[in-house]
UniProtKB/TrEMBL annotation:
The gene is rocF. This is Arginase. Binds 2 manganese ions per subunit. Its EC number is 3.5.3.1. Pathway: Nitrogen metabolism; urea cycle; L-ornithine and urea from L-arginine: step 1/1. Keywords: Arginine metabolism, Hydrolase, Manganese, Metal-binding. Transmembrane segments: none annotated. It is an enzyme of class 3 (hydrolase). It comes from the Bacteria. It comes from Hydrogenophaga atypica. Belongs to the arginase family. NCBIfam families: rocF_arginase.
Amino acid sequence: MDTPHAPTPITAELIGAPTDIGAGARGASMGPEALRVAGLQPALESHGLRVLDVGNLSGPGNPWLPPLNGYRHLPEVVAWNAAVCDAVYAALGRGHLPILLGGDHCLGVGSIAAVARHCREQGRPLRVLWLDAHADFNTSALTPSGNVHGMPVACLCGLGPAELVGIGGHTPALRPDQVRQIGIRSVDEGEKRLVHEHGLEVFDMRFIDEEGMRRTMARALEGMPANTHLHVSFDVDFLDPEIAPGVGTTVPGGPTYREAQLCMEMIADSGRLGSLDIVELNPALDVRNKTAELAVDLVESLFGKSTLMRAGR
């Protein structure tokens, strides 16, 4: 009788992108190292994953200049996103689960464009969960700051400079109906109109307050075919700043620790997680790395850590 083989463990590939090129405050460039110091690799290994840390990507420094034609640091933003896109696409081609360690959230353009390209080539459906305090659906015409970390979802949906929206080789990289936004509580007025015009599905904090995190996540995850690739883009400012102060754009009234744990556990229960961004962690604004440690704790829940004591888990 043949001896059954143990399943091949998932290989998670950690890709550091140490830049704050798209942000309005300096410090997110230190995020990748803070996550490593907080024990991300051993935490993932404790849940049966093989972990390959490929180190940090390189790219241009932050010139800290004012906006030019509506964008701050656009050439540098494009360079970083191109590097991220190439690295994430290569990781997926190796059969790995890429985990992007940001860096600010402008990097979501390159990361998700790579995932979308991979899914198109594999004929797989894609769903993106955007965990964030902000909709990030701004354009240069709507935001006076020009900070591109407020624009990645718009860019992915084809609204933005050609150099960014074409990363990944397909414009747009995403359709709005492939995205579910969760935890939103800070949206500019013009941005809000644009979100409604494009039919983006947003589960804001009022929805979570009224319906609870369980129903929110059930709605966000419903209707996915079995072969769906689920990408989670986790902006640490998704969390309430009382528990996660180490971010550049704090917005009060975010999910509590238990709500965030339930969110992550339900994503894990779906069995479809295929790629992950962890972005906007700013150690310069943190307290003894507590936000990085919390982020690692929540990422563990994405990969199977659970407080559930009922039989059958």
